[in-house]
């Protein structure tokens, strides 16, 4: 199969987390988004949560008006968020699970059990010309449910794999990795566009970029952390390099390798 360039989406939620810790205007997530775009990001991701713990409504408006990079708006499949998305009209929306007590998004949507809740949201956004993706695990039933919902794209939750890699649980990491490999291939066969994200760092992003079915990675927390030490622009550039190195490996004949 043809192996396209892999897109990099930068999640700027935790720039807003830092801003909100002091209640002021700095650091500005919109400034961070512009910096990320100049450094090589293909799109910007921002999660407007029910409790507005990081991204706020005016951030969404400014990201759309002031950043020369497409916005991927993450949101729960609620009436409130659907109304906001239809009014703001971002080019992309990713539907994610959301619980107030969680620190970050824990696991993917249950698209099987939540079909009746998700269906009208996916339909309304699609009819408005907004491209919808579902943030799900790599399990076949979830991928099949996404296809039945007529969502054009999915984003595979990579948190379990990344945690296992970081914690050096090698058997678990291999199991999680194989699930991602199989899930991405299955989704591609069903005609879904495949994205991935959650917990990725330079090494895991490089490895997952070798999967030709995956066309986009969305990465945030790790890069905001790296920015403390090397700056956001440099962190994005290093991530772009790691992803390109992985993608180049996917284009090589079996047995060849990319020079490090």
UniProtKB/TrEMBL annotation:
<feature type="binding site">
    <location>
        <position position="54"/>
    </location>
    <ligand>
        <name>1-deoxy-D-xylulose 5-phosphate</name>
    </ligand>
</feature>
<feature type="active site" description="Proton acceptor">
    <location>
        <position position="47"/>
    </location>
</feature>
<dbReference type="GO" id="GO:0005829">
    <property type="term" value="C:cytosol"/>
</dbReference>
<comment type="subunit">
    <text>Homooctamer; tetramer of dimers.</text>
</comment>
<keyword id="KW-0963">Cytoplasm</keyword>
<feature type="site" description="Transition state stabilizer">
    <location>
        <position position="155"/>
    </location>
</feature>
<comment type="function">
    <text>Catalyzes the complicated ring closure reaction between the two acyclic compounds 1-deoxy-D-xylulose-5-phosphate (DXP) and 3-amino-2-oxopropyl phosphate (1-amino-acetone-3-phosphate or AAP) to form pyridoxine 5'-phosphate (PNP) and inorganic phosphate.</text>
</comment>
<feature type="binding site">
    <location>
        <position position="22"/>
    </location>
    <ligand>
        <name>3-amino-2-oxopropyl phosphate</name>
    </ligand>
</feature>
<feature type="binding site">
    <location>
        <position position="11"/>
    </location>
    <ligand>
        <name>3-amino-2-oxopropyl phosphate</name>
    </ligand>
</feature>
<comment type="similarity">
    <text>Belongs to the PNP synthase family.</text>
</comment>
<feature type="binding site">
    <location>
        <position position="199"/>
    </location>
    <ligand>
        <name>3-amino-2-oxopropyl phosphate</name>
    </ligand>
</feature>
<feature type="binding site">
    <location>
        <position position="49"/>
    </location>
    <ligand>
        <name>1-deoxy-D-xylulose 5-phosphate</name>
    </ligand>
</feature>
<feature type="binding site">
    <location>
        <begin position="220"/>
        <end position="221"/>
    </location>
    <ligand>
        <name>3-amino-2-oxopropyl phosphate</name>
    </ligand>
</feature>
<feature type="binding site">
    <location>
        <begin position="13"/>
        <end position="14"/>
    </location>
    <ligand>
        <name>1-deoxy-D-xylulose 5-phosphate</name>
    </ligand>
</feature>
<dbReference type="InterPro" id="IPR036130">
    <property type="entry name" value="Pyridoxine-5'_phos_synth"/>
</dbReference>
<dbReference type="InterPro" id="IPR013785">
    <property type="entry name" value="Aldolase_TIM"/>
</dbReference>
<protein>
    <recommendedName>
        <fullName>Pyridoxine 5'-phosphate synthase</fullName>
        <ecNumber>2.6.99.2</ecNumber>
    </recommendedName>
</protein>
<dbReference type="InterPro" id="IPR004569">
    <property type="entry name" value="PyrdxlP_synth_PdxJ"/>
</dbReference>
<keyword id="KW-0808">Transferase</keyword>
<comment type="pathway">
    <text>Cofactor biosynthesis; pyridoxine 5'-phosphate biosynthesis; pyridoxine 5'-phosphate from D-erythrose 4-phosphate: step 5/5.</text>
</comment>
<feature type="binding site">
    <location>
        <position position="104"/>
    </location>
    <ligand>
        <name>1-deoxy-D-xylulose 5-phosphate</name>
    </ligand>
</feature>
<dbReference type="Pfam" id="PF03740">
    <property type="entry name" value="PdxJ"/>
</dbReference>
<keyword id="KW-0664">Pyridoxine biosynthesis</keyword>
<feature type="active site" description="Proton donor">
    <location>
        <position position="198"/>
    </location>
</feature>
<dbReference type="GO" id="GO:0008615">
    <property type="term" value="P:pyridoxine biosynthetic process"/>
</dbReference>
<dbReference type="GO" id="GO:0033856">
    <property type="term" value="F:pyridoxine 5'-phosphate synthase activity"/>
</dbReference>
<feature type="active site" description="Proton acceptor">
    <location>
        <position position="74"/>
    </location>
</feature>
């Amino acid at each position: 199969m043809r192996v396209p360039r892999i897109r990099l989406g930068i999640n700027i939620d935790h720039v807003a987390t830092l801003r909100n810790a002091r209640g002021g205007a700095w650091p500005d997530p919109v400034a961070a988004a512009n910096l990320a775009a100049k450094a090589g990001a293909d799109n910007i991701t921002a999660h407007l949560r029910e409790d507005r713990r990081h991204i706020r409504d005016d951030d969404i408006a400014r990201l759309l008006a002031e950043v020369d990079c497409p916005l991927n708006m993450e949101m729960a499949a609620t009436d409130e968020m659907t109304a906001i998305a239809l009014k703001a009209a971002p080019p992309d929306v990713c539907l994610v699970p959301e619980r107030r007590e969680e620190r970050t998004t824990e696991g993917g949507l249950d698209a099987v059990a939540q079909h009746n809740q998700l269906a009208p949201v996916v339909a309304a956004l699609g009819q408005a010309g907004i491209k919808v993706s579902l943030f799900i695990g790599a399990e076949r039933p979830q991928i099949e449910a996404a296809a039945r919902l007529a969502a054009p794209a999915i984003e595979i939750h990579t948190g379990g794999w990344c945690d296992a890699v970081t914690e050096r649980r090698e058997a678990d990491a291999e199991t999680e990795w194989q699930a991602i490999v199989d899930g991405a291939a299955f989704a591609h066969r069903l005609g879904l566009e495949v994205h991935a994200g959650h917990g990725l760092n330079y090494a895991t992003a490089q490895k997952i970029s070798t999967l030709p079915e995956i066309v986009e990675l969305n990465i945030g927390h790790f890069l905001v952390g790296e920015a403390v030490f090397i700056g956001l622009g440099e962190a994005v550039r290093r991530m772009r390099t790691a992803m390109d190195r992985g993608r180049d490996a996917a284009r090589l004949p079996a047995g060849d390798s990319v020079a490090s």
